[in-house]
Amino acid sequence: MTVDYLQFFPARVRDSGPPPVVSQWRRWRGMDVHVHRAGDPSAPVKLVVLHGAGGHGRMLLPYTGLLGPVEVTAPDMPGYGLTRTNGRPVDYAAWVDLAADLVAGERDRDGRPVIVLGASIGGMLAYSAVARTGADGLAVTCLLDVRDAAVRAAAARFAPLGRAARPGMNVLRPLDPLRVPVRWLARMTAMANRADLNAAVSGDRLGGGGRVSLRFLRTYLNSVPEVEPERFTACPVLMAHPAEDRWTPVELSLPFFDRIAAAKRLVMLEGCGHMPVEEPGLGQLARALREFTAAAAAGPAR
């Protein structure tokens, strides 16, 4: 049964109800990629939303209701949600390629501005996709560079394994096809600062309750950003980071964020955990994203 994540949001968000969603399927490299389309098709701004580990497109749709008039594209990345890989091997490079293709498709579809929003490890995914294709804005909750042992330690369920995982996973390459529960590898108990929300994520077979291949884990842990931050000038960057993130605190993202050459802004979301659903941070997130999308809508035409 699909988890209704809207129930974990404040009443003002719940009362607005879930956004109308249209499901679409896209054939991509032999996979059937499931994409959620929501919002106003005639809105002045388009938003591509990229989830992270333990997530899927529908999980993030409640956030899009905070943004005003936008048209939203939220894919289920391979290995999560309803996307069918049809036996094709999934690695992190395929995630970047798919995200970049989706962003490029939205940019080519019409002249409206495109903003890419990445949550959790979807932040660096969005960064790499935008570095490759361009966009009118990049918004992230964090920017986790897995070349940093401290980042790997925080992301992993067991910190010592995370620190050693980069060379260790290469030794285990023959086990690439093996699929193991997400919760064995990642700290699903730190997804939020609420036990009920963590339990929902861990029990969601489309997300944190699913399985991931060791191939994906290995290639993710050995990944590098599309460009170094000193060379990123594709568009303005907003990092809206949860201030009470018990999984990946802001100190892990700042070394990368501070090096970004493009115009950038950091907003700390007060009282929020890794998946921000608390006030006042949720209101701060809504204001920051509305200002960001309004600036993109008012910007010069591409």
- Strand pairing plus helix content: what structural class? alpha/beta
Helical content class: 25-40%
Name given to the CATH architecture: 3-Layer(aba) Sandwich
Quote the beta fraction. 15-25%
**Strand arrangement, major sheet:** 1-2-4-3-5-6-9-10
CATH fold descriptor: Rossmann fold
Biggest sheet details: 8 strands, mixed
Number of strands: 10
- Which outline best applies? globular
Indicate the mean pLDDT: 92
Rg, Cα atoms, Å:
18 Å
Helix and strand sequence:
HEEEHEHEHEHHEHHEHEHEH
Unreliable spans? none
- The number of distinct structural domains comes to 1
Straight-line distance between termini: 42 Å
Q: How many helices?
A: 11
CATH first level = Alpha Beta
What is the CATH homologous superfamily assignment?
Alpha/Beta hydrolase fold, catalytic domain
Domain AB hydrolase-1: 47-280
Protein name: Alpha-beta hydrolase superfamily lysophospholipase
InterPro entries: AB_hydrolase_1, AB_hydrolase_fold
Keywords: Hydrolase
What can you tell me about this protein's structure?
This protein has a single domain, classed as Alpha/Beta hydrolase fold, catalytic domain (Rossmann fold), CATH 3.40.50.1820. Helix content is 35%, strand content 18%. The protein has helices at residues 11-14, 57-64, 92-109, 122-133, 149-155, 159-171, 182-185, 195-203, 214-221, 254-257, 281-298; strands at residues 21-28, 31-39, 46-50, 71-75, 114-118, 137-140, 179-181, 211-213, 237-242, 264-269. Helix 4 links the parallel strand 5 and strand 6 (137-140). Helix 5 packs across helix 6 and helix 6 (159-171) packs across helix 9 (214-221). The longest helix is centred in the first third of the chain and has 18 residues, at 92-109.
